[in-house]
Amino acid sequence: MHLTSTLGATALLAATANAALRGFNYGAFFNNQAPKQQADFEYEFNAAKQLPGTNGAFTAARLYTMIQHGTINSPISAIQAAINTNTQLLLGLWASVDDATFQNEISALKTAISQYGQAFADHVVGISVGSEDLYRITPTGIENHSGVGAQPDQLIRYIQQTRAAIQNTPLAGKPIGHVDTWTAYVNGTNAGVISNLDFLGVDGYPYFQTTMANSIENANQTFYDSYQATVNSAQGKPVWVTETGWPVSGPQQNQAVASPDNARIYWEDVACSLMAKDINLFYYTLQDAQWGQPEPSFGIKPAGDLAQVQPLFDTSCPQRDKCSSAEQHVIGSSYSALISPTRSTIFNFYLSPSDDGKICYLVFMLPNQSPEFWTPYQITSPGGINVIQLDSPATVTTNARIAGNGTLVGTVPQLNKGQFYKVATLPCQSGTIGYKVDSLDGLNMQFFQVNAPPLGLFVMVSD
Ligand SMILES: *[C@@H]1O[C@H](CO)[C@@H](O)[C@H](O)[C@H]1NC(C)=O
Ligand SMILES: *[C@@H]1O[C@H](CO)[C@@H](O)[C@H](O)[C@H]1NC(C)=O
Ligand SMILES: *[C@@H]1O[C@H](CO)[C@@H](O)[C@H](O)[C@H]1NC(C)=O
Ligand SMILES: *[C@@H]1O[C@H](CO)[C@@H](O)[C@H](O)[C@H]1NC(C)=O
């Protein structure tokens, strides 16, 4: 008996110690350039912990600078806020101006150590020297006007200066890393930077990867490809995800559509799977629209009083036995249809009483993609469909669990471009009828149902 309880306690401790970091990114100022004060950081850190559906897991904060905005080298007030709210800090030293300015970051770090001592150290989980500095000096970064960056040798000096600054202080031994895009890490010219790090922070945004097929359907794959490429270049060091997210609003980037529905899909696919894998995650972001409107905007919460405004999408995660809880999510947008091994779409059709007694054909149309017409669909994995007539049609709150029972009315073994499929011939029934389309043999498809040329599931009434 004694043995059992001892083992129980040990297991619990180990689990706590290993728990991966979950947090958001926190800028030093609002959109109107007003510096965030200690009370603002405390408000944000508390709001993160209270984010619905997350069980208080978002207890970490990544900062970009050690300096309180608007001062030369005073320590950022987020430190006192983190101590007061028991928030874990991934510190950041901004490294993309010049050597003299970097010394201000070092000064602020040293001042913070002497001012807050062990209480500060107890909340620091890592220190990042720089943020996307190597990305900004690449041809893509320059083309995108991303601003001043830093050369690899410059970053190496800054990393060494940071190590020296924390030596023999309560912060000694804290892991020192750097944050950049995967493209910077796979670039062999930067290998020397990696050799000097304890961990790599990677920022990944499939939304911006416009030279690739970057619809939300491909986003999970695109993200993990870039994560894996970083791991492969990491010289065995841990890789933390320091920024990732999908915008809730903003312009379309190639195939990537910014919307709360898509942000929810990204959260469920990428954020939830990272958490399930116990990978350190700093999502971008809790709120980015305070006192101004960024384009695109990545905020889970819109502008306004953070404690009052509701999230723009559901941030809960499916249970590890994924289907049971995922079934409760309504992810539909009323515009786009998703048909994949884990997602089905329900289509409602209304027939008038004058159609009663006629013959109805349930058809699926997949036009050829041609430059003359807008044919908005992507098939990322081939396969077919099963079509189920539901006992009752969908409402705005229908999820997979309550979609109810139905009858299989037709099957298309394989969907091919440029084809028209007669799924079923049925007596027309007036009123609203719901049909659920399930993926068959791995079909992964996303489309916007349109009429010209017809694309999607239709009911045709014979005369
Ligand atoms: C590779 O890295 C070097 C140094 O950071 C940079 O100057 C160069 O532009 C990078 N190359 C590409 C293709 O991004
Ligand atoms: C940067 O430039 C590349 C190449 O022109 C483009 O594909 C990409 O969307 C741009 N990224 C951002 C963040 O604007
Ligand atoms: C996203 O990709 C990761 C890594 O391959 C995988 O573990 C996870 O299940 C994927 N999520 C979905 C919804 O496909
Ligand atoms: C579906 O059918 C099962 C078994 O016949 C029944 O127990 C269940 O209540 C039905 N569900 C709905 C939503 O009608």
TrEMBL record:
GO molecular function: glucan endo-1,3-beta-D-glucosidase activity
Subcellular location: Cell membrane; Secreted, Cell wall
Principal location class: membrane
EC number: 3.2.1.39
Membrane topology per record: Lipid-anchor; GPI-anchor
Residue ranges occupied by any Ubiquitin 3 binding protein But2 C-terminal domain in the UniProt entry: 328-452
Family, similarity comment: Belongs to the glycosyl hydrolase 17 family.
Full protein name: Probable glucan endo-1,3-beta-glucosidase eglC
Native organism: Delitschia confertaspora ATCC 74209
